[in-house]
Amino acid sequence: MNFEKNYYWDFILIGAGLWNSIIAWYLKQYNPKLNVLLLELSSSVKNHIWSFHQNDISSSQYMLIKPLITYSWPSYQVKFPKFNRKIFSGYYSICSKHLNSYLIRALGINNFLFNNKTVEIITPTSIRINNKKIINANCIIDGRGLKNSQFDGIYQIFLGQQWNLSSPHGLDIPIIMDATVNQKNDEYHFIYTLPLTPNSLMIEDTRYTKKPFLKIDMLKKSIKDYAIKNRWKLKNIEREEIGSIPIALKNEKIIKFKKIICVGLRANLLHATTGYSLPIAIQLAENIAKYSITTNQINSTVLFKLVKKFIINHQKKQRFFCMLNRLFFLSNSRCHLDIMQYFYTLPDKIIRNFYANKLSFFDKIRIFSGKPPISLFQALYAFLNL
Ligand SMILES: Cc1cc2nc3c(=O)[nH]c(=O)nc-3n(C[C@H](O)[C@H](O)[C@H](O)COP(=O)(O)OP(=O)(O)OC[C@H]3O[C@@H](n4cnc5c(N)ncnc54)[C@H](O)[C@@H]3O)c2cc1C
């Protein structure tokens, strides 16, 4: 196996999560000759679904990742106590199993390896495996996910369950936010539902909360109650996923990553309010892949600078979202629903730009115009707490 010989790699990607998978795909699409090694800690493919909005990415980016898209819908809806709204913008989901089957074909089965429990990054161009063997590459990319110590903020906590139903559910487009469910103090609660097939649904209980953990039984019950309310006849669970995403209240300082290229959650690369990161991963993957075709030999120092610049730009864009997070979470918890409900009365274009990280100055003004759902004092507090 190439991996065991003294082989020189163009790229070694550590962690086969969302980000490195997208980067690996882009690298091989732009330059099939590149030697790319993808190393994953776990022993098998994890079962995730990652979604994004049509307007989050360009049409050329869409064409490149189209084979990876497992489910797509022409529009989606949101539900609040005062109204339901359908938003005419495509919504897409990528399943990790589907993604990995494409990656194995693109990389070659020997270049996508699981069960790597002892990978140690030594320099920007070398790793150590099994405490002894050193493997070199032109460039190492660290995509090992969130480091616990990195974060101080609030959490978006999910329990997602994929259910088979004994009769069709009748839902034809996703409900990405149903906030008609019970709201508790100090959290914002909604249910997210993807109609995968006529007889299967992905139902996710989602909460923005100050607590890093929630009782799983409570989340399970909430999903069951929601299914009963919608008269969905749940038969058996296909898969279950629990997780949390850090939601920053302040713009994090640039992480010192000692010249090692970090991506994804390792580098705080996510939309600070929604927690989505797939479109950002696609953008960075495109930048890295474009760089890779401009040179005969990948240079990790050049690439480090490229990624660092990307992270700094991303963090600048997140200042506004962090301020919104403060407005949201420092405000009285009774206001959470009012704020979200108000947001979804805004024009489609602003909602699309919000998710896509592309708010213009005028979009930002528009978000704050109209009757404020929170008091002036609370707003001032959030602004000054930059
Ligand atoms: C339930 C849930 C639903 C979500 N839905 C969406 C969504 O719809 N859209 C969206 O954009 N985002 C979504 N997110 C957020 C998204 O999952 C993260 O932003 C994304 O996974 C971050 O990607 P990553 O590659 O940085 O980390 P991860 O995807 O967490 O991948 C890190 C990988 O590194 C591996 N690893 C760790 N240590 C090592 C090691 N020492 N050696 C080798 N490998 C290692 C891990 O096993 C893992 O596979 C969701 C998150 C959750 C929890």
From TrEMBL:
<dbReference type="InterPro" id="IPR010108">
    <property type="entry name" value="Lycopene_cyclase_b/e"/>
</dbReference>
<keyword id="KW-0472">Membrane</keyword>
<feature type="transmembrane region" description="Helical">
    <location>
        <begin position="7"/>
        <end position="27"/>
    </location>
</feature>
<dbReference type="Pfam" id="PF05834">
    <property type="entry name" value="Lycopene_cycl"/>
</dbReference>
<dbReference type="GO" id="GO:0045436">
    <property type="term" value="F:lycopene beta cyclase activity"/>
</dbReference>
<dbReference type="InterPro" id="IPR008461">
    <property type="entry name" value="CrtY"/>
</dbReference>
<dbReference type="GO" id="GO:0016117">
    <property type="term" value="P:carotenoid biosynthetic process"/>
</dbReference>
<keyword id="KW-0812">Transmembrane</keyword>
<dbReference type="InterPro" id="IPR036188">
    <property type="entry name" value="FAD/NAD-bd_sf"/>
</dbReference>
<dbReference type="GO" id="GO:0016705">
    <property type="term" value="F:oxidoreductase activity, acting on paired donors, with incorporation or reduction of molecular oxygen"/>
</dbReference>
<keyword id="KW-1133">Transmembrane helix</keyword>
<comment type="similarity">
    <text>Belongs to the lycopene cyclase family.</text>
</comment>
<protein>
    <submittedName>
        <fullName>Lycopene cyclase CrtY</fullName>
    </submittedName>
</protein>
<keyword id="KW-0614">Plasmid</keyword>
